[in-house]
Amino acid sequence: xxxxxxDCMGGDHGPDVTLAACRQFLNHHPEARLLLVGRxxxxxxxxxxxxxxxxxxxxxxxxxxxxxxxxxKKDSSxxxxxxxxxEGRAQAAVSxxxxxxxxxxARYLLKTLDGIDRPAIATQIPNxxxxxxxxxxxxxxxxxxxxxxxxxxxxxxxxxxVLNDDPQPRVGLLNVGEEAIKGSEExxxxxxxxxxxxxxxxxxxxxxxxxxxxxxxxxxxxxxDGFVGNVALKTxxxxxxxxxxxxxxxxxxxxxxxxxxxxxxxxxxxxxRRMDHRRYNGAAxxxxxxxxxKSHGSADALAFEQALNRAYDAARNNLLERVRxxxxxxAVLPAAPDMASVPGATPPSxx
Amino acid sequence: xxxxxxDCMGGDHGPDVTLAACRQFLNHHPEARLLLVGRxxxxxxxxxxxxxxxxxxxxxxxxxxxxxxxxxKKDSSxxxxxxxxxEGRAQAAVSxxxxxxxxxxARYLLKTLDGIDRPAIATQIPNxxxxxxxxxxxxxxxxxxxxxxxxxxxxxxxxxxVLNDDPQPRVGLLNVGEEAIKGSEExxxxxxxxxxxxxxxxxxxxxxxxxxxxxxxxxxxxxxDGFVGNVALKTxxxxxxxxxxxxxxxxxxxxxxxxxxxxxxxxxxxxxRRMDHRRYNGAAxxxxxxxxxKSHGSADALAFEQALNRAYDAARNNLLERVRxxxxxxAVLPAAPDMASVPGATPPSxx
Lengths: 351, 351
Known about the structure:
Chains A, B: GO terms for molecular function: phosphate:acyl-[acyl carrier protein] acyltransferase activity. Chains A, B: Its main location: cytoplasm. Two copies of one chain form a homodimer. The first copy, chain A, has about 350 residues and is an alpha/beta fold. Chain A has one domain: Isopropylmalate Dehydrogenase (3-Layer(aba) Sandwich), CATH 3.40.718. Chain A is about 45% helix and about 15% strand. The first copy, chain A, has 13 helices and eleven strands. The longest helix of chain A has 26 residues. Chain A starts with a strand and ends in a 22-residue tail after the last helix. In chain A, about 55% of the residues are buried. The interface between A and B is large, with 63 and 63 residues.
C-alpha cells in the first residue's frame, strides 16, 4: 500500500481541482491511500475509505514570497503535506502550489541527500520520438557549477530509469554546439566531469546537445543550469501557446475556414493530444531525503491526477532509494561549493 | 546609392541561392548596387549593370574551425566581402556562411566601436502582436557581465529604432521571474544598470521578462547572454519543427485526413506564412565599425533576399551612426573586463 500526501489547497483552483483528481486517482489505484491536507471545512465532504483528512489551517499564496511561506506559515497545507513524508506517514507529497516555497520548505524539512549540494526540479517535455525528454534543472538553481550539473545528471538518470524502465538512460549536456570545445568554461568542465562519470559507469553520457535536441529526443535526459532550463521551458510554453492561438485564429477567420475546422476536427484533436502538456504534468524535486512532486499551478483535474500518478510510480518503484544508491555509487563525487546561502539562489518558479 | 557586398559562396547552397536572391533584390531596389564576392568562374554568368564581381579564391566551410577560417583563409569570400565594408566600397556585407567565422573575421577586420567590449548577434522572432521581438545576444558571447548586457540593450535599441521606426523601443531583461529580486547576481546587477540607463534617458527599460514574453511582445528588445539566447533560439526552432512535423503527419494519416488537409489549405498556408522564419532572416552583427548581416545557412532565395533587404535598410537608415551615437550618448558606460582572450569566448554558431 502506497500513501501519498496531497496539498489539496495549492494551485490556481484549490480543492475544486485537487479533490476531483484525488477521487479519480483512488478509483484507478486500488492499492493507494491518500492523506488530504488542508482546511478541514473544505475537505470534509470528500468521503473515501482510503482517504483521510489531515488538517492544516494556512495556505501559501501562489505569489507569496518564499521567506514568508517558510518562516511565517508553519501550518500551511504545503508544509503539513511534506511533514507527512518526513515523519513516514506518506511515501511522497504532491502540491500544485508556489514552486519556490515548495522547494524551500521541502529542503528545510527533508534536507538534501548525502553527496547532493542542491536539489533540482525535473520535468518531461514531449519529443518527436513519441516519448519525452526529461530536463533538469528548471529553476531551482540559477548559478550552477560543473559539479552541480554532474549531480543533476546522476539524479536525472535515477528518475528516468524509473519512469522509462531503462537502466541506463542517455544524458545530454545542454550547450551551444555539439563539439566538446563549445560553451562557457563551467560547461566545458561539466562535460569533462560527465565524461569521467561515464567512464566509471555512473551514467551513460551522450555528449553535448542543443536546444532543438530536446525535441529530437537525442538524449533521454538534458541537464542545464536552472536559469537556462527555466528560460527554455517558458520559451516552449510561450511558442506552443502562440501557435495554438494562431491555429484558432486562422480556423475561425470566416465561414469557409470554420467549415475546414469541422472537417479537420479529428486531426486537430490528435495534434492537441500529442502536444498536451497535461500528460506530462508532475515535476520531481530531486535530491531530497523524501519524494516531492510539483504539479503545474494551472493544472486541471486530469493534469493533477497525472502528477499523482507520477508520485505514485516513483514511490512504488522506490525512486528515493534509487537516487540514494546512484549518488552513493558515484562514490567520490567532487564536492561543490555550497551556494545555498547566496542571496540569488532562492528557487524561482518554473511555471 | 547604397552598395552591399555579398558573400555569394556562403551558406548551404552557395551561388545557386545567393545569385537568385541578388537578382530579385536588384529588381526590387533600383537604387542599390551589389558587389558579388566569390569565385569568378561561379559568378561571371550574372550580368547586371548594378552588379560587379569581386574575386575571392577561397570559401570558408560551414563547419570549419574559426581559427582556421581566420588565420589561414586570407582570400575567403567572407573576408573579402567584409573588406569591401572596411575599405569603404560597400556600406554593409551579407553572408550566409559559418557564424563563428563571420563574427571572428568581422571583429578582426572592422574592430569594435568605442564603448563596446563585445559585438553581439541580434535577430527577430515573430510575436503574437503581429510584429517581431528582437533578441540579442544569440551566441557570440557565452559568458556575459552586466555591463555587456547593458551594451546589448543600447545597441539593440539603435537597431530596433531603425527597423521599427520607433525612437524609444522597450528593452526587457530575460530572467526567471518578473520581480527585480529574481535571477543570478550578474542578472540582478544588469537590472540595476539598465534601470540607471533608463533614468538617464539612454534606453527605455521595460523590466524583467521571461521566456514566454518573447512571443507576447511584452518588450521590443530582449537582452540575454549568448548562451541563453542560443539555447532559446534553438529550442524555438526545434519546437516549431516538431509541431510542423506533427501537423504534416496527422493531416496525411488517411484519406479522410488528407481531404481535411485540402479543405484546410488556405488556413495552413496562412499559418505557415505567419510562422515563416524566412521573413525574419538576417541577423545583425552589432557593435562593429561597419555593418555585417548574417543569413541563416539553410536560407533559400526568398530568405536570403530578406537578409539583403535588412542590410539595405540598415545602411540606408545609417544604423552604424545611430549605434555609434547611442553608445557615445550613453556617455559614461561602465567599463567591462574584456574577456575576448578567454578560450571559451569564441562565438558559437546560433544556427
